[in-house]
Each structure stands twice: as C-alpha cells, then as structure tokens.
Amino acid sequence: MAVPRNALKKWEKVHAFALGLPGAVEEFPWGESVAKVDKKVFVFLGVRDGSYPLGVTVKLTDGTAHAHALACPGAGPAGYGLGKAGWVSVPLEAPGAPAAELLCDWVEESYRVIAPKRLIAELDGG
Fold it and tell me: Does Transmembrane show up as a keyword for this record (predicted)?
C-alpha cells in the first residue's frame, strides 16, 4: 500500500523536528520508530513502509491541546492504556489531518512533559 505523499512529507517534517530536539534519539522498539529523551519515549512515529497507516502519538497534558488533537479526523486515545495518561494517536493520512507545524507543536509539548529540566532549558536557549 502506497503512503500518500502529503502524509509522508508531514511525517518526515515531524520526524526531523523530533530528532532535532536537545538530547533526542531515535530507537526502533517493536519495529516502529520512536523518539526518546533521557531513555523515555516522547513521540511514537510508527512505521513509514506503508504496512500500517502513518501517524504520530504524543503525550499532551495541556487540556486545550489534548482536546484539539482528539478532535482531528481519526484521532483517539493511544492504545495499551496510554490514553489514560494523556497520549493521543493522530493519523496523518486522513483528509483534514493536522498540518506539520501543528504536529511539531504537539511533539514539542510532549517533549517538554518527558524531558529533564536541563534539556528544556537548553531548548529555551538557557
């Protein structure tokens, strides 16, 4: 199954943004891409080979951002009980999927929830 180009371009922007955050590393547990900081996942990036729909899963503790993400077409609380902790899965292939810029904002929020204070200070230019 071919991945829609616009969804792939969004995914690539989000992927590059996530890995550009201070201390971020990419790992492949369960065969999918995740970005971690301080050995903790801050965004699940899934797979980009077309075997599963493209999407990202982020932890949003801000009520407004969380509600906004859940309102996206096809979005929902993350599986495996992660939804209870504020994790939201957002598909990228659905018509009306969020723009890359908004997705990057959510990735940054998720990073700020997970990252140690010293790396957040580095992100903020401190």
Answer: no
Element (H, E) at 9: helix 5-19
Query: In residues, how long is the chain?
Result: 126
pLDDT tens figures, 43-71: 999 998 888 889 999 999 999 999 999 99
Rounded to a whole number of angstroms, the CA Rg of the chain reads 14
The backbone torsions φ and ψ at residue 41, rounded to the nearest 5 degrees and listed phi first, read: -70, 135
Three-state secondary-structure class, residue 117: helix
Assess whether pLDDT exceeds 70 at residue 1: no
Q: Give 66-125 pLDDT, tens digit per residue.
A: 999 999 999 999 999 999 999 999 999 989 999 999 999 999 999 999 999 999 999 999
Picking from 30, 60, 32, 31, the residue whose alpha carbon sits closest to that of residue 45 is 32
Query: Domains along the chain?
Result: 5-120 (3.90.1150.30)
